[in-house]
TrEMBL record:
<keyword id="KW-0812">Transmembrane</keyword>
<feature type="transmembrane region" description="Helical">
    <location>
        <begin position="405"/>
        <end position="425"/>
    </location>
</feature>
<feature type="transmembrane region" description="Helical">
    <location>
        <begin position="232"/>
        <end position="251"/>
    </location>
</feature>
<keyword id="KW-1133">Transmembrane helix</keyword>
<protein>
    <submittedName>
        <fullName>Bacterial membrane protein YfhO</fullName>
    </submittedName>
</protein>
<keyword id="KW-0472">Membrane</keyword>
<feature type="transmembrane region" description="Helical">
    <location>
        <begin position="176"/>
        <end position="193"/>
    </location>
</feature>
<feature type="transmembrane region" description="Helical">
    <location>
        <begin position="127"/>
        <end position="144"/>
    </location>
</feature>
<feature type="transmembrane region" description="Helical">
    <location>
        <begin position="102"/>
        <end position="120"/>
    </location>
</feature>
<feature type="transmembrane region" description="Helical">
    <location>
        <begin position="199"/>
        <end position="220"/>
    </location>
</feature>
<feature type="transmembrane region" description="Helical">
    <location>
        <begin position="314"/>
        <end position="333"/>
    </location>
</feature>
<dbReference type="InterPro" id="IPR018580">
    <property type="entry name" value="Uncharacterised_YfhO"/>
</dbReference>
<feature type="transmembrane region" description="Helical">
    <location>
        <begin position="12"/>
        <end position="31"/>
    </location>
</feature>
<feature type="transmembrane region" description="Helical">
    <location>
        <begin position="342"/>
        <end position="359"/>
    </location>
</feature>
<feature type="transmembrane region" description="Helical">
    <location>
        <begin position="651"/>
        <end position="674"/>
    </location>
</feature>
<feature type="transmembrane region" description="Helical">
    <location>
        <begin position="379"/>
        <end position="398"/>
    </location>
</feature>
<feature type="transmembrane region" description="Helical">
    <location>
        <begin position="150"/>
        <end position="167"/>
    </location>
</feature>
Length: 689
């Protein structure tokens, strides 16, 4: 691989055209989203939009979305991480746009960034501009579009090539700035939430740094080769500082992990790629057909004790045109193709490919980090990047043997064929649909939301479909959380399931729902003839819910107010005249006016969790856990003001570490700018004769 050093103006011009190409590709692949549409399917309305609408509402109220009080009995949104509370693009987009527009704009931005960063990395290791475009195309549109239902995929995957670009740029220049950029990109990958791709990025860097310095160092400057150990130390230190930059996110998440359903090993085999499905790379026509139910095919051929998978997690495809280019390069240009750098990437890609079936899980489950994540198929992102670099290198070598016209014709044909191929696959292998009229735009028209808003006090809705009704501004049950407090996964504490909405309720199930503070029930059928203790508030077609659930207008919904519920706060052993009034109910701040001549345990039917502090009349009180999961406090006789505040110590410690790291980088920058001669750790010292 030859190193090119075009004039700076030429490189800037190339970057400008690459940016235009990146934007144009998002228009081609996601035109309905550019036109104001939205996505539906997968986890969009059951997971991501409930979180994002809560986040947007918190920003509008001027609050930090640290605690989500809408999902079940609440959970620490700052710790669960997929809300991305502190991720800078989220902070910008969800202030500017409504939730659907922000969600779409964020994904489109990261498709553009992923394309640009991949191109920049390919250029940094010596590929010519046109070949680097193919690398960016294969990486960005080979792996991510089928995973459009998973917002974290493109957002997390953006920072893999960005981190590699920063590391490679440092090795080429030994400038301290690139160490900061590396720390920043790693921190951003973790602030974005869902750390799986961030973890994979870190693994790639841990392999890349030593092998680049000691195995593929021939293309590095002589000064870098002379200072291998120092450069490795600098890069590894920058990686560590990336963690400390993201500590404001990592500290709360670490606390939640120890109290979550993943405190023990998760089902790490879920989302693997069966080895026979590797054939999709060379035989897409066999699998990507309308008459093939991929999810069924993938799972029916698995061994009886094997973890399940699905077509999205198991997807791996690069396009047929890049495959032809690679084969041509292998046949005709072997010596030019297989540089040490490409051999490294081939080796890394093969290692990642061998991990995708889950063969190594019996070993890696005992290694730090691996046991926390499901989806061995996600290591296909490394395979995709490795193949993209191989294809770009082959195209570069072939183009060197052609005249200018032939070069442009070849690149145009390969680019067009690959784009068309990947566009088709993005539609054939997916579980989301782009709609011109996004359901989320009809929330304000929801009669269910309007009826719930008329209720005095906080509402909790028992509804079909986990989480989705959170979007209406109400707490709801049941719950769907990828990383959630263990109480939600403890059968002894969960509401009895399945709750029979088509028969008279058993006494124990009804009592559990009433004790949990459920105030309303939403059903797909009338419950009045079944003896339910509730009052019909509304029935009909809900413009939002019917769209989100793809429900026929001929199938009405029924909203009931539950009788004899304990509501959001109650006395555990009330005297006849005891009263409870919730004066303020915000996600992280609750004020209750409680009166009782005998006093006793006051229960708030929200989740007890570290960080929640309680005051009685402005004086700290001891919180306790009621009924195994709710917040409780002993209140003396009389009338008192009970105040709950969410002040997580883990967040404050994390913030302190993040600020300290920023100050450290600021000091380094100051010293490098004003005293460059005294801070030359990565410069070779001249020998004095």
């Amino acid at each position: 691989m030859q190193k090119n050093s075009p004039p700076e103006s030429s490189e800037v011009r190339s970057l400008f055209y690459v940016t235009l190409t990146a934007v144009a590709l998002t228009v081609l692949f996601w035109l309905p989203l550019w036109e104001g549409g939205g996505l539906i399917g997968g986890d969009t309305y059951s997971y991501f939009f409930p979180q994002k609408t809560f986040f947007a509402d918190s920003l509008a109220a001027g609050e930090l979305a640290a605690w989500n009080n809408r999902t079940g009995f609440g959970y620490p949104a700052i710790a669960e991480s997929q809300t991305g509370v502190l991720y800078p693009p989220n902070q910008v987009f969800y202030r500017i746009f409504e939730a659907n527009g922000a969600y779409v704009a964020n994904q489109i931005l990261h498709y553009v960034l992923a394309f640009i960063f991949t191109w920049l990395y390919a250029r940094a290791i010596g590929l010519r501009a046109l070949a680097a475009v193919l690398v960016a195309l294969v990486y960005t549109y080979g792996w991510f579009p089928p995973r459009m239902c998973l917002e974290w995929a493109i957002i997390g995957g953006t920072w893999l090539p960005a981190s590699l670009w920063a590391a490679e740029s440092f090795l080429q220049s030994r400038r301290w700035l690139w160490l900061f950029v590396l720390s920043l990109t790693l921190a951003l990958s973790m602030l974005a939430g869902h750390f799986n791709l961030a973890f994979i990025t870190q693994l790639v860097l841990l392999a890349y740094i030593p092998l680049r310095l000691w195995f593929t160092a021939a293309s590095l400057p002589e000064e870098t080769r002379a200072l291998r150990s120092r450069c490795a130390t600098g890069l590894l230190t920058a990686m560590v500082l990336g963690f400390s930059l993201a500590a404001i996110q990592l500290a709360p998440t670490w606390e939640l992990r120890g109290r979550s359903q993943r405190s023990a090993s998760a089902n790490t085999g879920y989302g693997h790629m069966p080895v026979w499905y590797w054939s999709q790379v060379v035989m897409p026509w066999k699998w990507y057909r309308a008459d093939v139910d991929l999810d069924r095919v993938l799972n029916e051929n698995l061994p009886p004790d094997s973890a399940m998978t699905n077509k999205v997690e198991a997807h791996l495809y690069f396009g047929l045109a890049p495959l032809v280019v690679v084969l041509a390069g292998i046949v005709f240009l072997r010596r030019k193709l297989f540089s040490r750098h490409i051999i490294f990437w081939i080796g890394l890609g093969i290692a990642a490919l061998l991990y995708t079936p889950g063969w190594l899980l019996p070993v890696t489950q005992y290694l730090p980090g691996f046991s926390f994540f499901m989806g061995p198929g996600r290591y296909g992102i490394v395979v995709t990047l490795a193949f993209a670099l191989l294809a770009g290198t082959a195209l570069d070598a072939i183009c060197q043997r052609m005249n200018l016209l032939g070069r442009w014709v070849l690149v145009a044909v390969v680019f067009a064929a690959t784009t068309a191929d990947l566009w088709y696959v993005s539609r054939a292998v997916t579980n989301v649909v782009m709609l011109s009229d996004a359901p989320l735009r009809h929330v304000d028209e929801s009669p269910v939301a309007q009826k719930l808003a008329e209720f005095t006090g906080p509402t909790r809705l028992y509804a079909p479909g986990a989480n989705l009704t959170n979007i209406l501004g109400t707490a709801s049950y049941p719950v769907y959380l990828g990383l959630g407090p263990a109480e939600y996964f403890d059968e002894s504490l969960s509401l009895p399931a399945p709750f029979p909405l088509d028969a008279p309720p058993p006494a124990d199930q009804l009592a559990a729902v009433q004790q949990a503070g459920v105030t309303h029930v939403l059903s797909g059928q009338s419950l009045e003839s079944l003896g339910w203790p509730m009052r019909l508030l509304w029935y009909g077609v809900d413009p939002f819910l019917h769209r989100a659930w793809a429900r026929s207008p001929n199938d009405p919904l029924f909203l009931y107010e539950l009788s004899e519920t304990r509501g959001r706060a109650y006395w555990e052993s009330p005297s006849p005249e005891a009263t409870v009034e919730i004066e303020t109910y915000r996600p992280s701040h609750i004020v209750i006016r409680a009166a009782s001549k005998d006093g006793g345990m006051l229960v708030l039917t929200d989740l007890e969790y570290p960080g929640w502090q309680v005051d009685i009349d402005g004086k700290p009180a001891a919180a306790t856990t009621a009924a195994g999961l709710y917040r409780g406090v002993e209140v003396p006789p009389g009338t008192h003001t009970v105040t709950w505040n969410y002040r997580p110590v883990s967040l404050y410690w994390g913030a302190a570490i993040t600020v300290a790291t920023l100050l450290l980088w600021a000091i380094v920058g100051h010293l490098r700018y004003w005293h460059p001669g005294r801070f030359n750790y990565f410069e070779k010292q001249s020998e004095t004769p």
